[in-house]
Amino acid sequence: MTGHHRRAAVGLPGREDPLVDAPLMRALIGGAHRHHGQTRQMSADAAPDRVRYLSLAWIRELSAAVEASERLAELAADHRLRVTQIVTDTPEGDVAYHLSVADGTASFGAGPVEDEDVRMQQDWDTAVAVATGQLNAQEAFVTGRILLTGDRELLMASLDVFAALDSVFNEVRARTDYS
Prior knowledge:
Elements: E1 8-10, H1 22-29, E2 35-36, E3 51-52, H2 56-68, H3 70-76, E4 81-90, E5 93-102, E6 105-110, E7 118-123, H4 124-131, H5 137-142, E8 146-150, H6 152-157, H7 159-173, E9 176-177
Helix pairs in contact: 1-4, 1-7, 2-7, 3-7
């Protein structure tokens, strides 16, 4: 985290209600990963035309789709944002993935991003519920099921990036198995 960004915790009970909308959250939670302490090999996806949520195949597809997005590249010329997403208690262990948008390039990948501006963390059940529309993202923040730390103002200034990211995720989401 760079020194010029204000850190804020959002989504904890008793805190200010977050100003984060559902498309932004779906885009972020739709999201590449790294396994901490994983000792078993990741299982294969259920079917060749489907990808399992948070699997390596899912991350590869999203990474390729983000890289191919002309709209995200355009937005990356005017935005700088680095987001790390942590999902705990997944069937494969804890998972970390990131989005980086800067200098005309948008990338999505496994593990935390260096010099992150924003970090989000939630458990598997919350991530699946938000990604599939069973849980409203804002409700998940307010009830403390999603913890957001970092530069909330920068996050809110990047809503157009997340709208474009949500469109990219929709392509993969249609083929995603959340079981």
